[in-house]
Amino acid sequence: MLGTAGSYGIEKLHLVYGVGWEGSTVSVVFTINGATVKVLADSAGDVQVPPEATAASGTGAITILGVDETSQRISVDVPYLVMAHADVQGDAPDPTPDEWQQYVAAVKQYADQAQKAADKIPTPTPADEGKSVVARADGTYGLALIQGGGGGVGYNIGHGLKVTGGDTLEVDTAEAVEQDNTGWPVGAPVADEGQVWLLIQPHLAANYEGRPSTLRALWGLAHTKDPARAKPWVDPYGTSGMYMTDECYRAEDGTVYRCLQDNCVYDAQALPSAWEEVQI
Fold first, then answer.
1. H/E run at residue 14
2. Which of 33, 60, 37, 61 is nearest to 48 (CA)?
3. Are 222 and 114 in contact (CB under 8 A)?
4. How far, in Å, CA of 115 to CA of 109, rounded?
5. Which pTM was predicted?
6. Domains, the chain, with CATH or none
7. pLDDT tens digits, one per residue of 99-130
8. Do the beta carbons of residue 161 and residue 133 sit within 8 Å?
9. CA distances for 26 relative to 21, 66, 75, 77, 102, angstroms
10. Which residue blocks in the chain are alpha helix, DSSP H?
């Protein structure tokens, strides 16, 4: 049961994904009395029940849809009940945004989280060779030597990062703890190939061939608003990795550009009006 007719803003679903759903963009479709509304699940698998799903009494159906780059998965219908009540006048809710508006809002929120995470990662020096990135109690990050792997136990955000080549943060895959990030929280950062990536879907790395740049359904790209820390351009993957206002990238000739709009998917060469050159 999802409450009484006309109630809204109360019920929430939490999805626990089984095998085959990892890395998918998941939406939940509510159908009742001939009306249908689709809601995008967030990165934690939570879905706010939309007001349209409980607008009137009756029996409805919940259907779960998962889409990745190669496949689409649709669940069986799960019935739900909305109870009737005496005639009571209440406030009318705002309509649920369409699917594209939901994606844009999610991308904006994700970009804000990415910016915060990217800015917390310290800039290493040659003296930090061999150290790993660890999370401090206050939510910031530091560099420390980590002895051995944990076999999947005792994860800390950033254990997949290690200083290599004197001043570069790279993913170190030598330890067992770095092969299995099923215990990492969504949004945990790693650095690889000169970019910072945020974990979208915790997974056992041994089951996937590739790295963050080739597993874009599992890893999201983090950009920075600090021109001095701007990284090379990477094409967005769908809504993941879009450049937001004030986020920067460094062109091949070393020029740094700052974005002037949200949800930008083209670089300064392809869309000059969306970028401004930054002097550093």
1. strand 12-14
2. 37
3. yes
4. 10
5. 0.47
6. 12-96 (2.60.40), 111-220 (no CATH), 223-280 (2.10.10.20)
7. 767 766 766 666 666 666 666 666 666 666 66
8. yes
9. 8, 4, 11, 15, 12
10. 99-120
